[in-house]
User: Fold this.
Amino acid sequence: DAGVIQSPRHEVTEMGQEVTLRCKPISGHNSLFWYRQTMMRGLELLIYFNNNVPIDDSGMPEDRFSAKMPNASFSTLKIQPSEPRDSAVYFCASSPRAVGNTEAFFGQGTRLTVV
Amino acid sequence: GQSLEQPSEVTAVEGAIVQINCTYQTSGFYGLSWYQQHDGGAPTFLSYNALDGLEETGRFSSFLSRSDSYGYLLLQELQMKDSASYFCAVGAPGQAGTALIFGKGTTLSVSS
Assistant:
């Protein structure tokens, strides 16, 4: 398996634009996580899905953030409109089991810069 | 709520042994895991403890005490390539499934 695949690897956008980050989890994994990483706040859990269903989105910072998982092999994180403070590295991770599993496999991340 | 505490920085020399501690407060607990992240890279899984005791994987060992809400990662025979950030993470039960919550990370610098 190729691992968790994220795209794009880098994104530079202007404030106010819509940004869509994409993730393909490892085939057969039941859980998918979206994280945001910054120096100040570390790795923040934004939202996670089990079997394509959003379970907890309490980490999503604002209504400008939304995430979907239309099928087991694809998820998106959308920011609309984007702001400079959204600049961060966004990671997607998947894990094999939905319950009791603390081993997650991370994608290479998307480095987002909002100017 | 959930919180994890770990030191922000640790320094050591090649060949030494270093221990990175992690204390946690969560409303539920499945296990404690450790991840390594090199600059510019993605976190990669190192080890997992669900039960009390020591788990050994090569030069790395991880320990858990559930009664103390405490764990540590022990790195032996340090090498320059071990310079990285190390995160502890708690698997905590959510409404359905497991949320994986990370500490802020410990930056390990290994010098020659």
In short: The two ends of chain A are 36 Å apart (CA to CA). The CA atoms of residues 40 and 110 of chain A lie 18 Å apart.
